[in-house]
Write a structure and sequence with these properties.
By secondary structure, the chain is an all-alpha fold. Helices cover about 85% and strands about 0% of the residues.
């Protein structure tokens, strides 16, 4: 199961998509009540909408750092090395990314869409996470089934 061009495209797309979020969430974990965390995760000069908004952001940051980041990193290492377990971990990370970002796509639309517009909303703000999750999950299933692209 040596990596193909598609494997490398998904690795690069995943890294470009996930790295800024992971760094923003690190700020949330280290300094959750800081203006810097609000500037990055809400908007410059804005505040959390309510306690639930803050708690959701903090909980998602913890979940990503405890679960998704290790799955993506170890899965990527596994697929680069050509191991089946890498694709299993990638499939798990893709499932989580797909699930939570579809939920957030609908939950946050009222707040993010009007200020950012359709292109940004359906691409970087939520879309790329949904697309990477779906592609990583589907590609992992195909590779584990013996299909090579």
């Amino acid at each position: 199961m040596q990596p193909t061009i598609v494997t490398w495209v998904l690795i690069v797309f995943g890294a470009i998509t996930l790295a800024p979020l992971v760094l923003a969430q690190l700020v949330m974990l280290v300094k959750p009540h800081s203006q810097q965390a609000k500037d990055i995760l809400v908007a410059k000069g804005e505040d959390w909408r309510d306690k639930t908004h803050f708690r959701s952001a903090l909980g998602l940051a913890w979940a990503d750092w405890l679960l998704v980041v290790p799955l993506v990193i170890s899965g990527s290492i596994g697929v680069i090395l050509g191991y089946a377990w890498g694709y299993v971990l990638w499939g798990a990370a893709g499932s989580i990314s797909l699930y939570i970002n579809i939920v957030l796509w609908f939950m946050e639309k009222e707040y993010v869409y009007p200020s950012r517009g359709a292109l940004a909303y359906y691409s970087y703000y939520w879309g790329f996470f949904v697309y990477w999750g779906a592609l990583a999950l589907a590609y992992s299933a195909m590779r584990l089934s013996g299909i090579e692209l």
